[in-house]
Amino acid sequence: MSSPAASPLLPVFARSELAFERGEGCWLVTTDGDRYLDFAAGVAVNALGHSHPHLVAALTEQAQKLWHVSNLYRIPEGERLAQRLVDASFADVVFFCNSGAEALEASIKLARKHFHANGQPERYRLITFEGAFHGRTLATIAAGGQAKYLEGFGPKVEGFDQVPFGDLAAVEAAIGPETAGVLIEPLQGEGGVRLVPPAFMRSLRELCDRHGLLLVVDEVQSGVGRTGHLFAHEISGVTPDVMAVAKGIGGGFPLGACLATRDAADGMTAGVHGSTFGGNPLAMAVGNAVLDVVLEPGFLDHARRMGLLLKQRLAGVVDAHRSIVTEVRGEGLLTGLRCAIPNGDVAAAFRAEGLLTVGAGDNVVRLLPPLIVTEAEIGEAIAKIERALDRIKRDMGLALARGAAE
Ligand SMILES: *Cc1c(COP(=O)(O)O)cnc(C)c1O
User: Fold this and answer.
1) Which residues bind N(2)-acetyl-L-ornithine (predicted)?
2) Is any ligand 1 atom within 6 A of the Cβ of residue 218?
3) Fewest beta carbons within 10 Å, which of 266, 319, 340, 405?
4) Averaged over 47-51, what is the pLDDT?
């Protein structure tokens, strides 16, 4: 492999040296034949693991018929997927795109256009939360509000008012004559696996109703079974008006969607928004195949059960290794370990034991196994985690001893 300095890739990612050749379920195999237990799942994307036979069959079958026609024509597989998403959620209508950021862009535009279409064009601002992550386009970095993603990219897109996580009084104070709604991840992923308390979600809904605002949820990471519920907002019993979905819904095929009530979407008429690739037959075939599995009776129960087991086992790990990991967070299979030493060091130690995880904000390591993970695989992951933490402790002890000897 060429050295990073000579790479033709734009160096925007800090990549590990690992390169994988194939995957089977929760396992990834490198080009050298080493096997890794994948608790990163492509950052919560491979909901059904790798090479799931039903997804492989759906994609290959569609690939032999038709790949792309554009949205100039009807796409029956897309109409079917939209209807199934509508039947399974609060929504009445669906817009398909190719990524999470695009699903957010569509959600933001839809919210603004709703007020424009209803005689209140001045209402275009969305209230967002500290620690949020909504994508990397110009509008979504403005919505996320993180300085490290905004810096150097010119004026921030107007129209986002950020308040502290979980601060209801601050939300209320931020509501003004230009406010269109509230945009929130029911469970912050990149921000450090922080669940929004269900009572807070319900208060947001009440505030939105009282002020005639739209509640927009970003379920790009938390949706499609990740929390053991089809969508994370269901945990609070709150019904949003608009929802962005991506990651897990394509099982690894690029697919995003914006779901909305007919009322919220009333400004979105022919020509006001679009996408060339969005809803293409390959993506629709895979999306339908993902839903075939996720909506099967018992599937979400399994994810919920495995999530509970993982959390219990991780709580035991925290008890035994408090000097390195201090807290278990999350819901279902969107879990995190808060670290007392740099989270990158912990993830690297896990990787050295053959376990893949992902970093997150607030010094957290995320564990995001495929939703098909088994009890035995969770046991293997815990064994690897124990070994990694023991090694870190040993190395820290050695370093201390060396320091004392000097
Ligand atoms: C990953 C993510 C996005 C952005 O998705 P992309 O597909 O990378 O554009 C947006 N919101 C949340 C909550 C995410 O986790």
Assistant:
1) 136, 275
2) yes
3) 405
4) 98
As a dihedral over the C-alpha atoms of residue 397, residue 403, residue 404, residue 405, rounded to 10 degrees, the angle is 110
CA 239 – CA 221 distance, rounded (Å): 18
CA distances from 120 to 60, 125, 181, 273 (A): 48, 12, 13, 20
Token pair for 240:
């949003």
Ligand 1 centre to CA of 331 (Å) is 18
Provide the token pair at 201: 């979600």
Q: Is the CB of 219 under 6 A from ligand 1?
A: no
What CATH class does 53-294 carry? alpha beta
Q: 222: Cβ below 6 Å to ligand 1?
A: no
Backbone angles phi, psi at 397, to 5 degrees: -65, -45
Nearest-atom number in ligand 1 for the CA of 101 is: 9
Determine the Cα–Cα distance for residues 220 and 101; give it in Å rounded to an integer.
9
pLDDT of 3 over the 60 cut? no
Amino acid at 268: M
**376-380, Cβ contacts within 8 angstroms, sequence gap of 24 or more:** 377/26, 377/37, 378/306, 378/309, 378/310, 378/313, 379/313, 380/37
Model pLDDT for residues 339-388, shown as the tens digit of each residue:
999 999 999 999 999 999 999 999 999 999 999 999 999 999 999 999 99
* Token pair recorded at residue 395: 């190395």
Which residues contribute to the annotated binding site for pyridoxal 5'-phosphate?
100-101, 133, 218-221, 276
